[in-house]
Design goal:
single chain, 184 residues, mainly beta, Elongation Factor Tu (Ef-tu), domain 3, Jelly Rolls, eight-stranded antiparallel sheet, four-stranded antiparallel sheet, 4 helices, 11% helix, 47% strand, globular
Amino acid sequence: MGYTNLLKFTDLTGAIDTAASPAVTGVGTLFTSELVVGGYLVVRNEVGGVCDIRQITAIASDASLTVASNFQDNANDTSPEAFSVGEVQVNGTREHSFVAYFNDGVAANVTALSITIKGSIDRVHWDTLATHVFSAGELAAKEAHFYIVGPSTQFIRAEITDANITKTAIGNAGVVVRYSNDKM
């Protein structure tokens, strides 16, 4: 069966300076070409090494954007990342199959992780179809398969719903979720 990747991390150009506000300032960044409104910005060096993921609500220029909620005021992040929530067209399919893969950092550092699966008819309004909470066994095995039956939808996407993912856990594509409309 063929799978389509739904979650992906991408390194960004430049550095960012977060403040205790929704405003984010870039230094040598290319926000207008590397990010999109509705996508996510990843800041790795928040307090305690925790990685924060915030949804982008506006992009004013290559060096200025706004996120939905405050980052903590912290030193510049010299290796910011974009976290893209991919979507796939499913043409009214109700049965959805997923597989998640975790890297060593996730298995060693994350004790709780869940993925929310959302569906949409028009790509404007996304309804939650299901949330899969990964068990300790799935995290330790670095792989999980799950299946949902939801209402008819034309598009589907997956979102990480936990904010306590450490920068080590993120690593390089620390979590990859793939989708197929074939039954497992």
